[in-house]
Amino acid sequence: MFEFKIGEELAKPGATGGLYDLVVIGAGPAGMTAAIYAARNSIKTLVLEKSSLGGLAATTELIENYPGFPEGIAGAELMDRFQKQARRFGAEIIEFDEVLQIEPVKQGLLRARTDSGEVYEARAVLIATGSRPKKLHLPGEDEFYGRGLSYCATCDGPLFKNKDVVVIGTGSSGLQEGLNLLGYAKHVTFVEFLPYSPAEKILQKRTMSHEKSTFYFNQQVTEIKGERVVTAVVMKDRATGEVQELPTEGVFVYVGYAPDTKFVEGQVEMNKWGYVKTDGKMHTNMEGIFAAGDVRADNVAQVTVAVSDGTKAALAVREYLAVL
Amino acid sequence: MALLNEEIRGQVREMLAELPDAVRLVVFKKPEDCSYCETIEELVTEIAETSENVSVEVYDFTQDQDKVAEFKIDKAPVIAIVGARDYGLRFFGVPANYEFTTLLHGIQAAGTGKSIQLDGATKDYLAALDKPVHYQVFVTPTCPYCPGAAVMAFDMAVESDLVRADVVEASEFPELSSRYNVMGVPLNIINETQRVEGRAPATMIVEAIESSL
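Above: the input entities. Below: the structure tokens describing the complete assembly.
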């Protein structure tokens, strides 16, 4: 019944400094894959991560569609393996330092300034900052974050043992994490804006047939209510206009994702949602700056796709450095 | 059946092979209402089997009052991780899943008397502390960010005799968790008043300590 894991995410050596061939921004699947390929090709690589390693993938309880793991693998464990592989080839990885600005100095020289005041110099930069869970932008959301409202069922699910919880959003992430919550909670109520669930069929089947689940479709959530902690979710039926209050102790929000690209706004070309435009080799419009993974425009947010992007970007960087 | 498989056992053996100081894992069990007490005892026993430097002592929280007082234990089950001296490292609940990492790093920290991830400025700050700091970290076994937060607490406790670090498996201590409104992990509580949500860098914890003093 118990599992015991040994993680290596705690080793935290500083950067060796000097001029890097490649600075990768973001240590999710795209960034770490690029680091594996680049470092293995003797490209001096530094990965800068604003938070903890692994990106969104690390907060996914179980990844079932990453090839090579027929039983599925915990997102955090998969990301730990990516990280070990990147370090093995000599990539340096720094956590908890956010890149605030990329400054082109001259051809073949870029500077990345970070929140801690460090300045890293690189010949090429890869933006692999991914995306983060979208907020609802509703009354009560910020107030009750960490007080019953959560964006990480994997982390916080065990705190809701035998309690009633609500999952807002029934896309694949909402249902995958809802399934995880069904293991702890007394009852899980799913609320969806659309008249149907856009999730993978297998996840729909598993959650909808579960005895502890209830689904509401075509509902607009209007408020998270509480008193010190969450007490209810208020929703309005989009067809009938009927307003209903669901009493609950926990709310988990899975309503899609938004990119983390504010720091390159006005520099790198983006689409109207803030995703970075690239060509098929992951070049952005700016020389020496590449992008890969969820952050890229018209992409699908999957670990396999991020891995593919990271690979292409590392090879394009190698080509670029060779002619610089 | 053993809790730790051969592969994990091998890794543990390697991690604990060269500790300069002996480490005592002092477990306090409760006679009643403790579904995981046996698991905890079994786990620390298996860890001790991998290393000559690690030993286990088991006490009863309700009976062994002298030991409860010696280690300043206020709730159980708990593992006190004691090195050359008692640096104040405590793990409350079962250190399962990701939290196994926290326990191992606690043993390493206690066995070396050294922190793992603190920079010079943070160590200097801790060395100059003149008031006690009670640093609690609430975690769950399935939270991948939690060991990072917990190890920060253990590191700070090793660097300063005035800091004691309680890592608490939140779902096993519902009353304490509700006292601090723990509904998201990791959650750091400094001196009962300062609240830092998430795995935070050392600078943020230092700021919270400052505000609490």
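Note for the figure: The mean pLDDT of chain B is 94.
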